[in-house]
Amino acid sequence: MNPLMSDREIISTFKYVSRMKQEFMLSELKDYLKEDTPLRQIYYTLKPLIFDMGIDIKADGDDFRIVCALPKKQMILSEGEIKKNELFFESTAVSRKLERLIEQYVEKKTGKTWDDPQILEKIRKAIRMQKASYWNESSSRNISYEKGYSVLGYLAYQFPVYFIQFQYLLYGMAKDGLLNTRMKILDVGSGPGTVPLAVIDMYNRLDTHRAEIHSIELFDENIEAYNFLVPQYAAIKSNVSVEETIRTNVSELNIEKLPGNIDLMVFSNVLNEMKNMSLEEKAELVKSMAEKLSQDGNIIIIEPADKTNSTELRRLTIMLKKMGVRIYSPCTFLWSGECTLENCWSFEQKEDIKPTRLMEKLAECDEPYRYINTDIKYSYAILRKDKLAKHYTDLPAKSKFARLSQIEKHNKKRINVVCSVMSGDLGDDKYRLFRVCDGTSKKAVYAVIPSHNLSEDNEALTKAPYGSIIKVFNVLVKYNEANDSYNLLVGKGTVIES
User: Fold this and answer.
1) Which of 56, 160, 200, 325 is 20 to 30 A from residue 373's alpha carbon, by CA?
2) pTM confidence score
């Protein structure tokens, strides 16, 4: 028997039966096949295709139950789903169930209780080593999570922040209408499963939406932690299915072997650690992987908010834009032309998270500040193959707004500007300071409001969400020689509209 002919017959028969029945057992297909075919062969032939067909499959004893679901469409959050998520983001924390699961993994790996003093000291040492490696700015910087205690240190220190920050981004995408009711997600460089666990956590606050998670990871220690944590956490609610991790080096990835029709591709804190690749090679990798996206699929790249990684992310996204992979957010290109700013330091900031029990236990020492990591700051970009953008404004060709590419011509003059707010408040009690951009800047530009000039006419700047567009009227341009940048000095006569 030709196995290709057999596979074609299985797929054809499955499509025929699924059109007739909304729910059935997979073994029923054997009644329609010409030859006796093992149930496992039928299962493995159909498994890669079923999710895209809008069909759910669940183990049922020695058999599998097939349920025909509704076709994929844009996710629209219900009032109840919004309420549950908004409540979560009012006081963000790792759920107690997940905290306990991580503690159990520590116990599994060490053979001792998670709060054993010797175990805690070894985790502290791993955290100190990771932090020292991270802050080494040289090209030899090498952060590795290959060893057992390195993974435990990551789960204790970095994981809670990365876990929460991805949920901010995922929820924002849901509100923007970028997610579908059935999502196929690929997490590139998954580590111990931070992104999949974040997806599962948010989907626990959704009703009927479904997600199928694929992941890529190289190191055995990470995969071991992933296999312990992710399937167990997903089992709490059955709306997220987890596929076996693809074990490979991302830089040596065989893209042809990746699943197709990916709705969301995630690079979370991974590209900056690929020191063996140039920026151009990383851009080529992302562009080639974008071919696996569905028509309305998204790529999200997340990096730390420090200047080095944040500015490199912006260079990467501009490079991808030139290659035809479009930027949805946070950057908005209000005028024609290309962004030429070499050092764009832009990041989002959220409220601090609540420390986990493990983090608090690690902080019970002489230097507690070394082991508490609760601040949410990150740089990100959402990319697509189409021209959809988060923010858009229609500017006439003869608009009376100055372009920031020409700002040097307006030094010490008052102008009108339309731009995006690309930071939270970077200032202090005396001066409110915000990074702004219109997609044409050659030098960094900041909007500055002295506290005594803050008024109802200009306070819109202080409330503008990250990446949103504002219009600024009657603002004074001043060159900052010390930082080689420009300030838009907001006065009492300045009007700002969001």
Assistant:
1) 200
2) 0.91
